[in-house]
């Protein structure tokens, strides 16, 4: 679905993304991991049109989408969430969802004068859709709450919910699990899997929690220092020497490799999650 060719994004002389090439297959939940500062969010920002690339190309379903604006990509079904949730805090949760589709009839003055019935119908449909999304995400009970009052995890669910208000094809999730408690992380994971299976969403997921990545993602792409280091099934990736080195440096490599060998098959991958570079 998405092909990234030799992508660069430099900030002055600093190469945040330094020749990254990767493919995201249609229907996959692709994981994107790597130490802090690896260039993951910058790569997302370039793909999603938030930042122009210094060079390189992004292709979606055979069409060159390099440098298109976020709203153009939005209309093609390419959506992203942000590492830090950016809800409209003084609006209710339901209102936050209802405003996503944009270009609604109620937005121009002429329409408000002449098309009241149409606006009313549209609002009713949006409200119904928002309530369905909230139910899907198991947060119907906060529909009328101001979004600013939500917990960190609930805000992340709301971010995911925003992608469900339109017909998304591919969704880029930047650390959707960061600062989220275990229960909500499970809910977020379940919602991602259901959206993938039932609605055909393709996902690319940045996350530091290796349990979460291991449970959800295939394949997993590893970035370090702006480049793609490895790509493959989660269990292979987590035993990959270059990957372990990128996270931890050579000193800890052998110790962690031993731990991973012991843990392999039990899900948990100690030492890989949340490690600061
Ligand atoms: N606007 C900017 N100007 C200058 N440097 C930047 C800018 N944005 C990011 N960087 C730098 O680029 C590098 C990559 O940052 P990025 O946020 O993409 O990393 P990341 O892999 O998402 O890390 P994390 O896991 O901590 O979120 C970092 O060293 C960061 O300081
Ligand atoms: Mg980031």
Automatic annotation (TrEMBL):
<dbReference type="InterPro" id="IPR051120">
    <property type="entry name" value="ABC_AA/LPS_Transport"/>
</dbReference>
<protein>
    <submittedName>
        <fullName>Amino acid/amide ABC transporter ATP-binding protein 1, HAAT family</fullName>
    </submittedName>
</protein>
<dbReference type="InterPro" id="IPR017871">
    <property type="entry name" value="ABC_transporter-like_CS"/>
</dbReference>
<keyword id="KW-0547">Nucleotide-binding</keyword>
<keyword id="KW-0813">Transport</keyword>
<dbReference type="InterPro" id="IPR027417">
    <property type="entry name" value="P-loop_NTPase"/>
</dbReference>
<keyword id="KW-0067">ATP-binding</keyword>
<dbReference type="InterPro" id="IPR032823">
    <property type="entry name" value="BCA_ABC_TP_C"/>
</dbReference>
<dbReference type="Pfam" id="PF00005">
    <property type="entry name" value="ABC_tran"/>
</dbReference>
<dbReference type="Pfam" id="PF12399">
    <property type="entry name" value="BCA_ABC_TP_C"/>
</dbReference>
<dbReference type="GO" id="GO:0016887">
    <property type="term" value="F:ATP hydrolysis activity"/>
</dbReference>
<dbReference type="InterPro" id="IPR003593">
    <property type="entry name" value="AAA+_ATPase"/>
</dbReference>
<dbReference type="GO" id="GO:0005524">
    <property type="term" value="F:ATP binding"/>
</dbReference>
<dbReference type="GO" id="GO:0005886">
    <property type="term" value="C:plasma membrane"/>
</dbReference>
<dbReference type="InterPro" id="IPR003439">
    <property type="entry name" value="ABC_transporter-like_ATP-bd"/>
</dbReference>
<feature type="domain" description="ABC transporter">
    <location>
        <begin position="2"/>
        <end position="250"/>
    </location>
</feature>
């Amino acid at each position: 679905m998405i092909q990234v060719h030799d992508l660069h994004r430099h900030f002055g002389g600093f190469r945040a993304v330094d020749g990254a090439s990767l493919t995201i297959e249609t229907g996959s939940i692709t994981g994107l991991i790597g130490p802090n500062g690896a260039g993951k969010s910058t790569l997302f920002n370039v793909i999603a049109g938030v930042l122009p690339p210094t060079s390189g190309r992004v292709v979606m379903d055979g069409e060159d989408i390099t440098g298109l604006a976020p709203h153009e990509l939005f209309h093609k079904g390419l959506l992203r969430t942000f590492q830090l949730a950016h809800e409209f805090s003084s609006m209710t949760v339901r209102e936050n969802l209802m405003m996503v589709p944009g270009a609604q009839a109620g937005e121009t003055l002429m329409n408000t004068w002449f098309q009241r019935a149409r606006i009313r119908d549209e609002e009713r449909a949006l409200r119904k859709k928002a309530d369905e999304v909230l139910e899907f995400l198991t947060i119907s009970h906060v529909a009328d709450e101001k979004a600013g009052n939500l917990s960190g995890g609930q805000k992340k669910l709301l971010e995911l919910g925003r992608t469900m208000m339109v017909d998304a094809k591919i969704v880029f999730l930047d650390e959707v699990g960061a600062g989220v408690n275990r229960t909500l992380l499970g809910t977020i994971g379940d919602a991602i899997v259901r959206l993938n299976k039932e609605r055909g969403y393709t996902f690319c997921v940045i996350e530091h929690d290796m349990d979460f990545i291991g449970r959800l993602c295939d394949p997993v792409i590893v970035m370090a220092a702006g480049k793609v280091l490895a790509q493959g099934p989660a269990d292979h990736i987590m035993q990959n020497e270059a990957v372990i080195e990128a996270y931890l440096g050579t000193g800890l490599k052998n110790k962690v490799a031993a731990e991973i060998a012991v843990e392999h098959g039990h899900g948990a991958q100690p030492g890989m999650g949340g490690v600061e570079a």
